[in-house]
Write a structure and sequence with these properties.
The protein has 122 residues and is mostly helical. Helices cover 53% and strands 7% of the residues. It has a two-stranded antiparallel ribbon.
Length: 122
């Protein structure tokens, strides 16, 4: 019989924060792909989720349709990065880049609180 490890509090909170972040990105962008305008259901991290300092930041996300997520964001990442920089603004993009390169960690419980409030405002 396979034993399942019990998830840590951090893992549980991270999963909740991930779900809230995804829902916020989809809601903020009205479930519309920001690249092509079609219906979108793929919240995409501009900078990887492994950058925990910005993992749950709303500015680090953009709603994409499946095709744009697959073909634009992941197959042609340099061109996509330039497009994103224009889409969200160079100042926001550069700020995210700087924070992504800084070794910081965001508390998932704080992210949960912030994202819950943002969702209430939408």
């Amino acid at each position: 019989m396979k034993r399942h490890k019990k998830k840590t509090r951090f893992q549980v909170d991270s999963a909740v924060a991930d779900k809230l972040w995804s829902e916020y990105i989809l809601t903020r962008d009205k479930r519309t792909c920001r690249a092509c305008g079609r219906p979108g259901n793929n919240p995409h991290h501009i900078f990887s989720r492994r950058n925990r300092g910005i993992r749950w930041e709303p500015d680090n996300g953009i709603c994409l349709c499946w095709a744009c997520h697959r073909h634009k964001a992941h197959e042609n990442s340099l061109v996509f990065a330039e497009w994103v920089k224009k889409e969200i603004g160079a100042e926001v993009y550069d700020g995210l880049l700087l924070r992504a390169q800084t070794a910081t960690k965001t508390d998932p419980q704080m992210a949960i609180l912030a994202l819950t409030e943002l969702l209430k405002e939408e």
